[in-house]
Amino acid sequence: MIMRGSWPQAAVIVLLFFLGFLFGACGKKAPPKPPLQKKLPRVKDLRAVVEASGVRLTWTIGEADKDVVGFNVYRSKPRPEVRDCPGCTRDFELITSLKVKKGESRFQAVDPYIEGKGRFYYQVVPFDKRDRAGPDSNEARVLVE
After folding, report:
1. For 106, phi and psi rounded to 5 degrees?
2. CATH assignment of 47-144?
3. Which tops the pLDDT comparison, 141 or 63?
4. Which of 97, 98, 79, 87 is nearest to 141 (CA)?
5. Strand, helix or coil at 109?
6. 128 with 80: CB under 8 angstroms?
């Protein structure tokens, strides 16, 4: 005797298999993570001073770090306005790269190529032997008149 309104046993099995597959394989996948690597130290005390030879930049890192092999020094394009603009984006361009000596913790660079007048901003970014960049430093600014 066939009961009306009941599903055949094969249909129930197929439905349960489909639902199990659907809900069992819906785990969220994340993008691959790079292998754990040591973070490079942040330069926190970048300073810029206008001198006769250009703009002298000085900075330190907390401790001599063997993973830091150099620094990239960036300068923003001049801004003709004198007042600051907190939160405004700046276009930085690489002006030089410095290699570090083992055990060194104090660094300096001179930017002799200041053209025009205005406010210039600088940042320094450490890099390691694989050329991976560390965190950006604080921004140092000078006013060239």
Report:
1. -115, 135
2. 2.60.40.10
3. 141
4. 79
5. strand
6. no
Domains of the chain by residue range? 47-144
pLDDT digits (tens, 9 = 90+) for 44-102: 899 999 998 899 999 998 665 678 889 999 998 765 564 666 667 788 999 999 998 87
Instruction: Give the strands of the sheet with 47-51, arranged side by side.
Output: 47-51, 54-60, 106-111
Token pair 């050329």 is found at 131
pLDDT at residue 130 greater than cutoff 80: yes
Mean pLDDT of 1-18: 70
Distance CA 75, CA 48 (A): 11
Token pair of 108 as six digits: 């300096």
* 3-state DSSP assignment of residue 41: coil
How much is the pTM? 0.68
Nearest C-alpha neighbor of 41 from the set 69, 63, 70 = 63
